[in-house]
Design brief:
heteropentamer, A mainly alpha (about 475), B mainly alpha (about 450), C mainly alpha (about 650), D mainly alpha (about 160), E mainly alpha (about 100), B: about 450 residues, mainly alpha, two-stranded antiparallel ribbon, about 0% strand, C: about 650 residues, about 70% helix
C-alpha cells in the first residue's frame, strides 16, 4: 500500500477500528491520528527538500468508463493533508474527556479519510466520490452530538452542499463528454481533461462548478448553511468543519474549476473577484450583528475565506501563495477559537455574548488564549492571520484585474480587515471584560485544565511561528500554484 | 425444437418449477418446507441455466440476445429475496414462479405478440400474488389487487389496439417495419402507453403507490425490482422493434417529470411503505430518462449498459428497503424514531440503503445515477438531466429525513424492545443488500462489468 | 556589512525585553507575581544603556541598515525584515529608552498592590519592546507590524481596569480609531509595493528621488502620501482622528504618561519623518501636513483651557503639541520637529506623573479641578517638579521647551500668514492652560473646591524620584539641540548599499539645521507666553470663581467645548450608523430575508407534494380516466409530427 | 354482397355495445356483450377466417360469457342504483375526456386509405391452423400454462397462520 | 368497404373504453375490457385477411386465450371483493389514498 493511498486509507481503517473498539475507541483514534500525522509528514518531506517543486503520482491504470484510481500530491495538497491530520489530533485531545460512544471517534477518522481523499485525488470521479463521502460523517457529527436544534442544521448542511455538488457533477460530466467528443477517449483524469475545448457551454460549466465549490467555501449567496452548521456542531466538529472542510471548496476552485475552464474563468474573473470582496465585507458586517459567540466566529470564517478568494482570483503569485497560507492559518486560528468556545460550552452550556461576564478574573488562562486567538484572527501583524491577508491583498493590488483602473479589490479587502476588529474585540470584551449581567452563568465557568492549555499553547506557538517566519511554509505552497499565475 | 429448448433453458426450468409447485398442491398435507425449497431452487436453477444459453434468433417469436440474457440475470436475482422469504404456501410459490416465468418469456420475445404474451403472463400471477400474499391487511390487499388488475387489463387492451393499428399499417408483427405512417405512429404511441403504465410513468402511475403500499413488503420488493426491470425491457424492446422519433423526445421529459413528481409526493408521506412506493416512482422516472437517452443516441450499447447497471443497483436497494420494512414491521415514520438506539445493526444497514437510494457517492446508487446523467448529457438532454438532478435533491429530503428520524430522534417512550432474532432471514437479507449496494458503488474501480 | 558586524548593542536592544517578558510570564508570574517588575526594570536599564551606546555610535557615523532574513517571498515579490539604526531613529529611541525606563520605575511603585500588577508590567514592557521595534524597523511592513502591536498594547493598557465601563469603551474606541488609521497605512504599503516593488526605506528614498528627478513620479505617489498622513493622524491624534486620545486617559497614569504623551503618539510623527522624502516629493502634501498640525494645535489648545479633569487637560495639551510637531514638519523643519518630539517627551511625561501623584494623593486614579486646590504646601515636591515642567512646556527662556517650541514659532513666523498667527495663538494658549492648571491645583483654595479638606498627602520617594529626574531632563534637554541636528542630517543620506550610482547624498527635501536663539523669536515667544500666563493668573487667582461661573452662565457653550466643536457627536453618529448597518445586514438581510427564502423553497416543494397527494383520492375510475387521458396525450404527441 | 353483410354486422355490434354501456342492469349488459361477440364472429367468417370465428364463439362467447353471467347471478346484479361513477371533476367533463380518445381514434382511422377488399384466399384458415402449432407453438403453450395459472385464482386464501 | 371494419372496431374500442372508465359497477367495467379486446381482435383479423397472413390469425387466437385467462382472474378478484362485503361499487375502494 503505497504512501499516498495510505494517507487516506489509514484514517479509513482507523474509522473501522474505532467503531469496533467500543470503550477504548478514543485510544484507537489517538493512535491512528498520530499515524496519519506521521505519514503526512513523511509524504511532505520530499516536497520540503525540493522547495515545494515535487509532485508525487500514484496508480493510474484506467478502469471502467475511463475512471482510474490515481492520486497525486504536491505542496498545497500535502500541506492541507497535514493540516487535516494535525487538527484531527487536536480534536482527539480536545474531546478526550467527553463521554461519547465509539461512533464519535469513528466519524472523525472517516471525515479525515474522506477529506484527505479530496486533497489527493487526481481522478475527477475519485475527487467527487471523496467530496460527497465527506458529508456523511459530518452529517452524523452535527446530528448526533450537536447542541439543541442540531437536526435541522445537519439536514440543511447536507442538502445545501449536495445541491451545489450535484450541479458540479453535471459540469464534470459535460467536460468529460466534450473531451471524449474531441479525442474519442473516455477519461476522468484531471491533467488530461484540462484544456479541453468546451465551446459555448464554458460559462455554464464554470457557473455550475463555482456553485458546487462556492457552497463549500462558502461564497456569500450560498453561505446560509454555515452559521447553523457551525453553531450546532460539537466543538471538535466545528474545528474540523471550519479548519478543513471549507478549504475543500477553495482547493476545488484552485485545482479543478480554474484549470478546467481557463477561458471562461478569465472572462468572469472580475465578477468572481467582486464576489470574493463582498464575501469579506458581508461576513464582517454579519459578524458584528451576532449575539451568539460561535455564530460570530462562523461569520468571521466567511470573511476570512473572502480574503482567501480575493488572493486566488487576483491571479498573482503572492496572491495565490497568500491564499494557500491563509487556508492553513484560518485552520489554526479559527480552530483555536472554536475549541475555546467548545470548552466554554462544556462548562456553562451557553454561548450567548450576554450570558457571560468578567471571565477574565474567573478564568485568566481562557482570557489569555481567547485574546491571543482573537488578535491572530483579526490579523494583528506578528501573528499568522496577518501574513495570509497581507499577501492576498498585495496580490489584489498588483493583480491585472482592475475595476476602473483602481485596485478596487485591495480597497474592499482593506475595509474587511478594518471591520474585523469591529466584531472581534466587542465580543471579547462582552464575554471576558464586561461586568456580569443579570442572567450570567459565569460562576459555572472554571479555568482551563492542563490538557486544554497544552493544546492551546501548541496552537498559539504555531500562530506566532507562522506570523514571524512564514517563508518556509510559503516555499512549500507557492510552486504548486504556478499554473494559475497570469 | 431442440434449438428452442436451449435458447429458452431458464424459462423451461421455471416452467418445471411452476408445475412442481402445482404438483405440491395435490399432496395431502404439503409441508411448507418443500414449497419454500422449490421457490428458491427454481430461480437459482434458472440462473445456472442462463449460462448454457447461446444467443439465437428463432423467428418469429423468439430473439434471445445479450441484452435479454443480462436482463434475465437481473430479474432472477431480483426475485431471490421474495423466494427466500416466501411463506411456504404452494399456491403462492406457483404464482411467484409463474410471474418470474412471464418475465423470462418477455426477455426472449422476438415480436410484439410474444411481448404481449410475456406482459400478460407476468401480470396475471402478479395480481393474484398481491391479493394473496401477506399476513395482515387482507381487505387493503384485495382493493390494491383489483386496482392493479383493472389498470393492467386496460393497458393490455390499449397495447392490443395499438398492435392492431401498427399491423394494419405495416402488415408485420415484428421488427423491420421502416418509417411509420400516421396509423403506425398512433399504434406505437398506444403500445408505449402500455409500457409506460407498467413502469409507472406519470400520467399512468396511479396504481403503483396503492399496490406497493398494500402488498406485503417482500412482494412489493419483487414488484419494484424484477417487474420494473421487465417493464423497462418491454419499453426497450418496443423502441427497438418499432423505432419512432417520438420516443427520443417524449421519454426524457416524461422521465424527468415522473422523477420530480415521485420525489415531491414522497416528501410528505407519513406511511413508510407509501414513501418507498413514491421513491420507486421517482427512480422509475430516472429509468425512463435513461431509455429516452438511449433512444436519442440511436440504441448506443453504453446507454443500455447504464440502464442495466441502474436496474441492478436498484434491485439491491429497493429489495433491501422493503425487506427492512418486512423485518422490522415499521409502519409510519414516527415508529422509526430513535430506531438506531433500539437495534443498531438493521438501522445501519437501512441507513446505508437510504444513502444508496439518495445517490450519495460511495454507494451503487450514486454510480447508477451518474451513469444515467452521463448518458442523458451525452444525448444532449441538458434540461431533463437538470430536472432529474433537482428530483434527486428533493429525494434526499426524505431519505435523509428517515436517517435523521432513526439516528437523531429519541425513541417514543412506550416502544417495546426489539428481539434481534425475529425474522432473521429478512434481517440477513437486508444486510446483504446493503453490502451489495455499497460494493456496487466501487464497481468502476474494481472493474465489475455490468 | 553583514550580520556579524552588527553591534551587540543592537542585538541586546531586542533580546533584553523579549527575555524579560518571557521570564516574567513563565517564571516569575506563576511563582511570585509581585516580583514581575524586577526582570523588566533590569531590561529597561539594559535597553537604555544600549540606546545611548548606539546613539554614540551613530554620532560617529556608524549608522547601518541591514536585512536579516526574508520574512515572506514568492517569486519576484518579497519582504525582508532587518534593522536600521540611523539618526532620527536613534534620537527618538534614546528619548523613549530614558523616559520609558523612568516611567517603568514609577509604574513599579504606582501599581503596587493592584491585583493585575504582573499583567500590567508584562503588557507595559511588551509595549516598550514594540516601540523599540517601530523605531528600528528598516522597511514599511516591519514598521506596520510594530505599529499594530503598539496599538494592541495600548488597547490592553487603556482597558486595564476592565471592570470600569468607561475604560472598556475608551479602549475599544482607541483601538478601532487606530484600526481606521491602519486601513490607510495598509493601503499605502500595498500601493508602495505595487509601484516600487520594494518596501525598504533607503531604497525607496533613492527610487523616489530618481523618479521625481526624471519627472515621471509613479501614478499612486500622491495617494501613498495622503494615506501615510491619514495613518499618522490616527496614531498621533491629529484632527480627523484625534478623539480617542482624551478618552484614553481611562488607563492607569503610567500608561497615559508613557504612551499617550511621550512615545506612542509620537509614532505618527516618526512615520512621517521616515517617509518624508515620499511626502515631500508631492507638491501639495507638506502644506497639508502643516495645515492639519496648525488647526489641531490651535483648536485643542483652546479646548484644553476649558477641561475640568487634570489628565484630560494634559491630553488635549499633547494633541496640541503633536500639532506643533506636524506644523514644524509641514514647514520643512524636520530636525526641529524631532527635537520638539524629544523635548515634549520629557516635560509631558513629567507633567503626567505629577498629575498621577496629585490623583494618588487622594487615592483616585485621576483628579478633578473641583477636588483639588491650594496644595502647594501639602505636596511640595510635586509642586516644584510641576512648575519646572510647565515652564518648559510654556517655552520660557532657560527651560528646554523654549528651544524647540520657539524654533517652530520662528519657522511659522518666517512662513507668515495663517501659520504665523497660529504659532502665536499656540504659544499663548499653551501658557494659558498650563498655568490655569497650576494655579487651580496648587494655589488659593476656592469655595468651589475641596482643597485641603481632602487632606492630600505627598507620595513616597518611589513616585517622586522618577518625576524629579524627568523634570530635570525637561529643563536640561535644550542643550541637546546640536546633537539632534547632526543626527537628523544623516537621516536620508546614502547608506552602503550595492546599487551603482547610489553613493551620492540625496538633496534633502527639508532643512535639517535648527536655528540658533534669534532675538526676535525670543521676544515674540516669551511675550506670548507671558500674555498667556497673565491671563491664566487673572482668571484663576484674581477672579477666583471665573472657571465655575461661565459654565453655569452659559451651559450651551460648555456643551460646544465638551463635544470638541461638535466633532465628537459627528463621530458617534457615524459609529452608530455603521453598527445599525451591520445589524440590518446581519439580522434582516441575511437571516430573515435570504435564509428565510432558502428554507422557504423547501416548504414550497412540500406544499406542491401535498397538493398532488390530495388530488390522488384513490378512486379506481378516476385512475383509469387519467390513464385514458395519458394514452390520448401520447397519441397526440405521436401523431403531432 | 359480403361487404354490406359486414357493414350490417358491424352496425349491429356497435348498437349492442352502446346498449351495454347504457343498460342499468348487468344482465342486460352481459347479454348485449354476448350479441356483440356473436356479430364479430360473423364478421370473421365473412372476412374469410371461419375457424377463428368458431374459436371466438367457442372460447369467448361460450366459456367467458357463461362465467360472467354466473358471477353476475352470484352478485345479485339486478338494476342497482347509480349507473356512472362519480369523479372529482364534473361527470360530463369525464365523458368528454373519453370522447377525446374516440375522436382521436376516428381521425387516425379515417386517414387510412380504404384499400379494396380482396376475396379471402381459400387455404387461409388451413394455414392458420398449422401455423398455430408450428411457428406460434411457444405462444400457444405459454398461453395454456397461463390459463392454468389463472385458474389458481379460484383457490381460497390461506387462513392466516 | 373494408373501412367499415375499421370503423366498427374503432367504435367498439371507444365504447369499451367508455364503459371501463365511466361505469360504477366493477363487473360492467370488466365487460368493457372484454369489449375493448374484442374490438382489437376484429381489427387484427381484418388486417390478417388483407395481408393473407396466417401468423396474425394465430396471434388473435393467442389473444383470445389470454383474454379468457384475464377474465377468470378479474372475475375471481371481483367476487372476492364482493364476498368481503364491500359491494360491487368501484367508488368504495378508496381506502388507499394520498
Amino acid at each position: 500500500m503505497s504512501l499516498l493511498t495510505s494517507l487516506w486509507a489509514v484514517p479509513a481503517l482507523g474509522a473501522a477500528a474505532c467503531a469496533l473498539s467500543g470503550r477504548a475507541a478514543r485510544w484507537t483514534a489517538l493512535v491512528f491520528s498520530l499515524a496519519a500525522l506521521g505519514l503526512s509528514m513523511a509524504a511532505l518531506r520530499p516536497i520540503l527538500v525540493s522547495h515545494g517543486a515535487g509532485l508525487l503520482v500514484e496508480g493510474g491504470a484506467s478502469g471502467l468508463f475511463g475512471i482510474s484510481y490515481s492520486l497525486s500530491a504536491d505542496g498545497l495538497s500535502l500541506a492541507l493533508v497535514a493540516l487535516t491530520a494535525f487538527l484531527n489530533l487536536i480534536c482527539a485531545f480536545a474531546s478526550w474527556e467527553l463521554e461519547v460512544p465509539a461512533g464519535y471517534w469513528a466519524a472523525f477518522q472517516a471525515l479525515a479519510a474522506a477529506v484527505n481523499g479530496v486533497f489527493l485525488a487526481r481522478d475527477l470521479f475519485l475527487f467527487y466520490v471523496f467530496w460527497e463521502a465527506s458529508l456523511i460523517p459530518m452529517f452524523f457529527i452535527i446530528g448526533l452530538w450537536g447542541s439543541d436544534n442540531r437536526r435541522k442544521a445537519a439536514l440543511k448542511f447536507f442538502l445545501f452542499t449536495f445541491t451545489g455538488s450535484i450541479f458540479m457533477l453535471l459540469a464534470l460530466l459535460a467536460v468529460v463528454i466534450a473531451h471524449q467528443r474531441a479525442t474519442g477517449v473516455w477519461t476522468w483524469s484531471l491533467p488530461e481533461l484540462t484544456g479541453t475545448d468546451l465551446g459555448a457551454g464554458a460559462p455554464w460549466i464554470l457557473l455550475a462548478l463555482m456553485a458546487g465549490f462556492g457552497v463549500k467555501v462558502p461564497m456569500v449567496p450560498l453561505h446560509t448553511w454555515l452559521p447553523d452548521a457551525h453553531t450546532e456542531a460539537p466543538a471538535a466538529g466545528s474545528v474540523m468543519l471550519a479548519g478543513v472542510m471549507l478549504k475543500m471548496g477553495v482547493y476545488g476552485i484552485i485545482r479543478v474549476a480554474l484549470p478546467l475552464v481557463p477561458g471562461a474563468a478569465a472572462a468572469w474573473m472580475p465578477i468572481l473577484a467582486l464576489l470574493a470582496g463582498v464575501n469579506a465585507v458581508y461576513g464582517a458586517l454579519c459578524a458584528m450583528a451576532q449575539t451568539d459567540l460561535k455564530r460570530l466566529i462562523a461569520y468571521s470564517s466567511i470573511a476570512h475565506l473572502g480574503f482567501c478568494l480575493i488572493g486566488v482570483f487576483s491571479g498573482t503569485a503572492q496572491g495565490l501563495a497568500g491564499a494557500a497560507l491563509l487556508m492553513i492559518n484560518h485552520g489554526v486560528t479559527t480552530g483555536a477559537l472554536f475549541l475555546l468556545v467548545g470548552f466554554l460550552y462544556e462548562r456553562a452550556h451557553r454561548r450567548g455574548l450576554s450570558d457571560f461576564g468578567a471571565l477574565a478574573t474567573r478564568a485568566p488562562r481562557m482570557a489569555f488564549f481567547f485574546g491571543f486567538s482573537i488578535l491572530a484572527s483579526i490579523g494583528l501583524p506578528g501573528l499568522n492571520g496577518f501574513v495570509g491577508e497581507f499577501m492576498c491583498l498585495s496580490g489584489a493590488a498588483q493583480s491585472p484585474i482592475l475595476f476602473g483602473g483602481l485596485p478596487f479589490y485591495a480597497l474592499i479587502g482593506a475595509i474587511g480587515v478594518t471591520l474585523a476588529a469591529a466584531y472581534a474585540l466587542p465580543a471579547f470584551q462582552s464575554v471576558f471584560w464586561a461586568a456580569e449581567g443579570p442572567n450570567s452563568v459565569s460562576p459555572k465557568v472554571f479555568d482551563l485544565g492542563g490538557r486544554e492549555s497544552a493544546i492551546l499553547w501548541t496552537l498559539c506557538a504555531l500562530m506566532l511561528w507562522i506570523g514571524l517566519a512564514p517563508q518556509p511554509w510559503l516555499a512549500t505552497l507557492a510552486p504548486s500554484l504556478q499554473g494559475l499565475v497570469r | 425444437m431442440t434449438g428452442l429448448a436451449i435458447a429458452l433453458a431458464p424459462q423451461a426450468v421455471l416452467a418445471a418449477g411452476v408445475f412442481g409447485a402445482l404438483g405440491l398442491g395435490l399432496m395431502a398435507r404439503p409441508s411448507p418446507m418443500w414449497a419454500r425449497a422449490l421457490a428458491v431452487l427454481a430461480p437459482l436453477a434458472a440462473l445456472a441455466a442462463l449460462r448454457l444459453v447461446v444467443p439465437a434468433y428463432l423467428p418469429p417469436l423468439v430473439d434471445v440476445d445479450f441484452k435479454g440474457l443480462a436482463w434475465q440475470l437481473v430479474i432472477y436475482a431480483g426475485a431471490l429475496p421474495l423466494a427466500i422469504c416466501s411463506s411456504g404456501d404452494d399456491v403462492e410459490t406457483a404464482l411467484f414462479l409463474g410471474a418470474t416465468l412471464g418475465m423470462g418469456l418477455l426477455c426472449a420475445a422476438g415480436n410484439l405478440v410474444m411481448l404481449f404474451v410475456g406482459l400478460e403472463f407476468m401480470s396475471l400471477p402478479a395480481y393474484l400474488l398481491v391479493a394473496r400474499a401477506g399476513a395482515q391487511g387482507r381487505s387493503r390487499r384485495l382493493e390494491a389487487a383489483v386496482k392493479y388488475f383493472f389498470a393492467g387489463a386496460m393497458a393490455g387492451a390499449l397495447f392490443l389496439f395499438g398492435l392492431a393499428l401498427y399491423y394494419g399499417e405495416t402488415g408485420r408483427l415484428g421488427p423491420g417495419a421502416g418509417a411509420l405512417g400516421g396509423l403506425g405512429r398512433a399504434g406505437v404511441s398506444l403500445m408505449a402507453a402500455a409500457a409506460l403504465f407498467k413502469i409507472g410513468a406519470v400520467p399512468l402511475h396511479w396504481w403503483l403507490p396503492d399496490v406497493y403500499e398494500a402488498a406485503s413488503p417482500e412482494v412489493s420488493g419483487f414488484l419494484s425490482t424484477s417487474m420494473k426491470a421487465a417493464a423497462v425491457l418491454f419499453l426497450v424492446r418496443l423502441v427497438q422493434i418499432a423505432p419512432d422519433p417520438m420516443f427520443a423526445v417524449v421519454l426524457p421529459w416524461l422521465g424527468a417529470a415522473t422523477a420530480l413528481y415521485g420525489a415531491a409526493l414522497a416528501l410528505r408521506q407519513k406511511g413508510l411503505r407509501r414513501l418507498l412506493a413514491y421513491s420507486s416512482l421517482s427512480h422509475a422516472g430516472l429509468l425512463v430518462l435513461g431509455v429516452g437517452a438511449w433512444a436519442r443516441l440511436g440504441g448506443d450499447p453504453d446507454a443500455l449498459r447504464a440502464i442495466l447497471f441502474y436496474l441492478a443497483a436498484y434491485a439491491l436497494m429497493s429489495n433491501g428497503a422493503f425487506l427492512f420494512v418486512a423485518a422490522t414491521g415499521v409502519q409510519t415514520r414516527d415508529d422509526l424514531k430513535g430506531w438506531a438506539a433500539r437495534s443498531g445493526g438493521t438501522a445501519a444497514a437501512f441507513a446505508a440503503l437510504l444513502f444508496a437510494l439518495g445517490g450519495i457517492p460511495p454507494t451503487g446508487g450514486f454510480m447508477a445515477k451518474l451513469l444515467v446523467f452521463w448518458q442523458s448529457l451525452r444525448a444532449g438532454l441538458v434540461w431533463p438531466a437538470a430536472l432529474a438532478a433537482l428530483a434527486s435533491i428533493v429525494s434526499l429530503g426524505y431519505y435523509l429525513g428517515l436517517v435523521r428520524d432513526m439516528y437523531f430522534e429519541v425513541p417514543a417512550a412506550n416502544c417495546a424492545p426489539i428481539d434481534a432474532s425475529a425474522r432473521a432471514r429478512e434481517r440477513i437479507l437486508v444486510l446483504a443488500c446493503a453490502v451489495g449496494a455499497v460494493v456496487l458503488g466501487l464497481a468502476p474501480l474494481l472493474r465489475i462489468r455490468p | 556589512m553583514n550580520a556579524a558586524q552588527v553591534p551587540w548593542a543592537a542585538w541586546l536592544l531586542f533580546l533584553a525585553p523579549v527575555s524579560a517578558i518571557l521570564i516574567g510570564m513563565f517564571v516569575v508570574r506563576p511563582l511570585k507575581p509581585e516580583w514581575t517588575h524586577l526582570p523588566i526594570l533590569a531590561s529597561c536599564a539594559v535597553v537604555t544603556v544600549c540606546a545611548l551606546l548606539l546613539l554614540q555610535r551613530v554620532l560617529m557615523g556608524g549608522s547601518f541598515d541591514l536585512n536579516f532574513y526574508r520574512w515572506a517571498g514568492v517569486g519576484s515579490w518579497g519582504v525582508d525584515f532587518g534593522l536600521r539604526i540611523d539618526g532620527p531613529g536613534v534620537a527618538v529611541l534614546s528619548m523613549v529608552a530614558v523616559v520609558g525606563s523612568l516611567i517603568h520605575l514609577y509604574a513599579a511603585s504606582y501599581m503596587e498592590g493592584d491585583p493585575g500588577f504582573s499583567r500590567f508590567m508584562l503588557v507595559f514592557h511588551l509595549f516598550f519592546l514594540a516601540m523599540i521595534g517601530l523605531l528600528t524597523a528598516n522597511n514599511y511592513v516591519q514598521l506596520y507590524l510594530f505599529w499594530e502591536l503598539v496599538g494592541a498594547a495600548s488597547y490592553l493598557l487603556i482597558g486595564f481596569w476592565y471592570h470600569k465601563e468607561s475604560a472598556r469603551k475608551a479602549a475599544l474606541k482607541a483601538f478601532l480609531t487606530n484600526r481606521v488609521g491602519d486601513f490607510g497605512f495598509l493601503l499605502a504599503i500595498l500601493l508602495i509595493i505595487d509601484s516600487f516593488k520594494i518596501t525598504h526605506f533607503h531604497l525607496l528614498y533613492f527610487l523616489v528621488a530618481r523618479a521625481t528627478a526624471a519627472g515621471h513620479a509613479p501614478q499612486f505617489l500622491p495617494a501613498i502620501g495622503l494615506l501615510l498622513i491619514w495613518a499618522a493622524c490616527a496614531k498621533s491624534a491629529q484632527f480627523p482622528l484625534y478623539f480617542w486620545l482624551p478618552d484614553a486617559m481611562e488607563g492607569p497614569t503610567p500608561t497615559s504618561a508613557l504612551m499617550h504623551a511621550a512615545t506612542m503618539v509620537t509614532a505618527g510623527v516618526f512615520l512621517l519623518v521616515r517617509s518624508w522624502p515620499l511626502i515631500a516629493a508631492v507638491p501639495g502634501l507638506p502644506d497639508l501636513v502643516a495645515g492639519i498640525g496648525a488647526f489641531t494645535a490651535v483648536s485643542s489648545a483652546i479646548v484644553a483651557g476649558t477641561r475640568k479633569d487634570l489628565k484630560r487637560i494634559l491630553a488635549y495639551s499633547t494633541v496640541s503639541h503633536l500639532g506643533l510637531m506636524m506644523l514644524a514638519l509641514g514647514l520643512g523643519r524636520v530636525s526641529v520637529a524631532i527635537f520638539h518630539l524629544i523635548v515634549h517627551g520629557f516635560f509631558k511625561a513629567a507633567l503626567f506623573l505629577c498629575a498621577g501623584n496629585v490623583g494618588h494623593a487622594i487615592h483616585q486614579p485621576t483628579a478633578n479641578v473641583d477636588e483639588v486646590g491650594g496644595w502647594r504646601k501639602a505636596l511640595p515636591w510635586t509642586y516644584v517638579f510641576f512648575v519646572a515642567a510647565s515652564l518648559s512646556l510654556a517655552g520660557i527662556f532657560p527651560f528646554g521647551g523654549f528651544f524647540s517650541k520657539d524654533a517652530i514659532v520662528d519657522a511659522a513666523m518666517e512662513r507668515g500668514g495663517l501659520f504665523a498667527l497660529s504659532g502665536l495663538l499656540i504659544s499663548a494658549g499653551s501658557a494659558f492652560y498650563i498655568f490655569r492648571m497650576l494655579f487651580l491645583t496648587f494655589h488659593g483654595e476656592r469655595p468651589e473646591q475641596k482643597g485641603l479638606s481632602a487632606h492630600p498627602h505627598e507620595s513616597g520617594s518611589g513616585l517622586l524620584a522618577p518625576v524629579g529626574l524627568l523634570a530635570l531632563g525637561a529643563v536640561v534637554i535644550g542643550a541637546a539641540r546640536p546633537v539632534v541636528e547632526t543626527l537628523v542630517a544623516g537621516g536620508w543620506t546614502a547608506l552602503p548599499v550595492g546599487i551603482p550610482g547610489y553613493a551620492q547624498t540625496m538633496n534633502l527635501p527639508g532643512s535639517t539645521e535648527i536655528p540658533g536663539v534669534a532675538l526676535k523669536a525670543l521676544l515674540i515667544g516669551m511675550g506670548m507666553a507671558a500674555l498667556g500666563a497673565a491671563a491664566a493668573y487673572a482668571l484663576t487667582m484674581v477672579d477666583a470663581g471665573w472657571d465655575w461661573r461661565w459654565r453655569k452662565s452659559s451651559p450651551a457653550l460648555e456643551r460646544v467645548f465638551d463635544s470638541d466643536f461638535g466633532w465628537k457627536t459627528l463621530v458617534d453618529w457615524f459609529a452608530r450608523g455603521v453598527s445599525s448597518l451591520a445589524d440590518f445586514v446581519g439580522r434582516v438581510l441575511d437571516k430573515k430575508w435570504w435564509d428565510g427564502a432558502i428554507e422557504g423553497s423547501g416548504r414550497v416543494v412540500q406544499a406542491a407534494g401535498s397538493l398532488f397527494s390530495d388530488a390522488a383520492r384513490g378512486r379506481l375510475n378516476e385512475a383509469l380516466w387519467w390513464m385514458a387521458a395519458g394514452a390520448a396525450l401520447l397519441l397526440a404527441l405521436g401523431a403531432a409530427r | 354482397m359480403t361487404q354490406c353483410a359486414i357493414a350490417a354486422a358491424g352496425l349491429g355490434a356497435v348498437a349492442f355495445g352502446l346498449a351495454m354501456l347504457w343498460s342499468r342492469s348487468l344482465y342486460v349488459g352481459a347479454v348485449c356483450l354476448l350479441a356483440v361477440l356473436l356479430q364479430t364472429a360473423l364478421i370473421y367468417m365473412l372476412l374469410g377466417a371461419p375457424l377463428l370465428g368458431l374459436l371466438q364463439v367457442m372460447i369467448y362467447a361460450g366459456a367467458v360469457m357463461v362465467l360472467a353471467v354466473v358471477t353476475i347471478m352470484a352478485s345479485g346484479g339486478g338494476p342497482s342504483g347509480e349507473r356512472f361513477a362519480d369523479f372529482s371533476l364534473p361527470r360530463p367533463l369525464a365523458a368528454l375526456g373519453v370522447l377525446a380518445v374516440a375522436v382521436e381514434l376516428a381521425l387516425t382511422l379515417a386517414s387510412t386509405r380504404a384499400s379494396a377488399p380482396t376475396p379471402a384466399a381459400a387455404g387461409l384458415s388451413a394455414a392458420f391452423g398449422a401455423n398455430l402449432f408450428h411457428a406460434y407453438a411457444l405462444a400457444t403453450e405459454a398461453v395454456t400454462l397461463l390459463m392454468f395459472l389463472a385458474s389458481l385464482a379460484i383457490l381460497p386464501d390461506r387462513e392466516p397462520s | 368497404m373494408s373501412g367499415a371494419v375499421w370503423a366498427t372496431s374503432g367504435a367498439l374500442f371507444a365504447v369499451g373504453l367508455a364503459t371501463v372508465v365511466l361505469r360504477r359497477q366493477m363487473l360492467a367495467m370488466l365487460l368493457g375490457v372484454e369489449l375493448m379486446v374484442a374490438a382489437a381482435d376484429l381489427a387484427l383479423v381484418r388486417g390478417a385477411c388483407r395481408f393473407m397472413d396466417p401468423e396474425a390469425l394465430a396471434a388473435v387466437a393467442v389473444v383470445l386465450a389470454v383474454a379468457a385467462a384475464e377474465a377468470v382472474v378479474g372475475l375471481s378478484l371481483i367476487l372476492r371483493v364482493l364476498r368481503s362485503g364491500r359491494g360491487l361499487d368501484a367508488g368504495e375502494l378508496s381506502e388507499l389514498r394520498g
